[in-house]
Amino acid sequence: MTFSHPVKLKPGDTIGILGGGQLGRMLAMAAARLGLRCQVFSPDPDSPAFDVVLNATCAEYADVEALELFANDVDVITYEFENVPAAAAMILAARRPVLPNRKILETTQDRLAEKDFVKRLGVGTADYADVSSAVQLRAAISRIGLPAVIKTRRFGYDGKGQTIIRDGDDPDQVWKDLATKSAILEGFIPFEREISVIAARSADGRVECFDVTENEHRDHILKFSHAPADISDALAAQARGIAEKIASALDYIGVLAVEMFVVASAAGPKVLVNEIAPRVHNSGHWTLDGASISQFEQHIRAIAGWPLGKPVRHGPVTMTNLIGDDINDYEQWLTVPGATVHLYGKGPPRPGRKMGHVTQVGALPPKIA
Ligand code: AMP
């Protein structure tokens, strides 16, 4: 079954969210402000999103009966992570509208399919090659050159499943260590900065982009974002145009994030697309306190069939992620004038685990690393 009629929720209706992490939690909180209920589906009993909803389903994504019961309880289904198993999405989509459309997952779960899709749109990416053996890796290296980045095609996030290959590295060993059957090799991009665009698209095809965000990673994990990005208006317009093109080509409903590199070229700086996230995104957390409408509210509005907002930024905004033991400083952050603290209610901090974030609106504050 497909749902050709557009979704139009009323206050009091229920949104099903697949995934119970902080993104699901912040989506549910935004929905609540608009008078909408959420039911969260997650296999993890300690899901931070469970804390903010009345109804939760704690079951595996392979549990067909649980999926069916969940679908029956809700009016529309969305997700907070891109690795939703295809079989689960299919079962749900037979019962309720799944937004963004589950077919989008096929493109964004596979780095090769994603890069091919972006290239077909005429949008720039790093040079890349499909690699499924050490022999192919050697061939790809001779075409693309070194340094290069090898990434598993599936299930990579926060730098997991990827390695930089440099001159002198042994491709056979790199391939063995990656322990995958399918990967892509990308040329290493000597970027000037990393940026992202958070875009929302409604069922009637309207797109609203937030101001371009500039991102800084530490150990492959996002540490700081600030908006607006320190780039020219023309480049920002180009970046937003790319995100809009991607959202429209996917016939997307909801919020997506497009991560991009800014690189120097003879004609001035240009942008290359690194990755598409079919969901709300960490680099858009500043919108919670730094704009009139957050990325979470935009997503809820889009999947509810409600009009999108026109987000107005309140000033320069910085977002600092509290990662692992950073969470131990939360009391200090609570005393910083102008800082808004968000804690995700997660269990013990582990290295690399996103535990919370802080937003600061106004003159860009000094960074606390
Ligand atoms: P990804 O998992 O693709 O989002 O990559 C995580 C981070 O690794 C990016 O935000 C970049 O900092 C870095 N990275 C990924 N791909 C490349 C590349 N082709 N060239 C240079 N840096 C990269």
List keywords for this structure.
Dna Ligase, domain 1; 27% helix; 9-stranded antiparallel beta sheet; 11 helices; D-amino Acid Aminotransferase, Chain A, domain 1; binds adenosine monophosphate; alpha+beta; 17 strands; Rossmann fold; single chain; PurT/PurK_preATP-grasp; 4-stranded parallel beta sheet; 369 residues
SS field, number of helical segments = 11
The assigned CATH architecture of the largest domain is: 2-Layer Sandwich
CATH class of the largest domain: Alpha Beta
CATH T-level topology of the largest domain: D-amino Acid Aminotransferase, Chain A, domain 1
Nearest-integer average pLDDT: 96
- The SSE string, one letter per element, is EHEEHEHHHEHEEHEEEEEHEEHHEHEE
How would the global form be characterised?
Answer: globular
Evaluate the radius of gyration.
20 Å
- Distinct small molecules bound, one entry per kind: adenosine monophosphate
EC number: 6.3.4.18
Pathway: Purine metabolism; IMP biosynthesis via de novo pathway; 5-amino-1-(5-phospho-D-ribosyl)imidazole-4-carboxylate from 5-amino-1-(5-phospho-D-ribosyl)imidazole (N5-CAIR route): step 1/2
Family: Belongs to the PurK/PurT family.
GO molecular function: 5-(carboxyamino)imidazole ribonucleotide synthase activity; ATP binding; metal ion binding; phosphoribosylaminoimidazole carboxylase activity
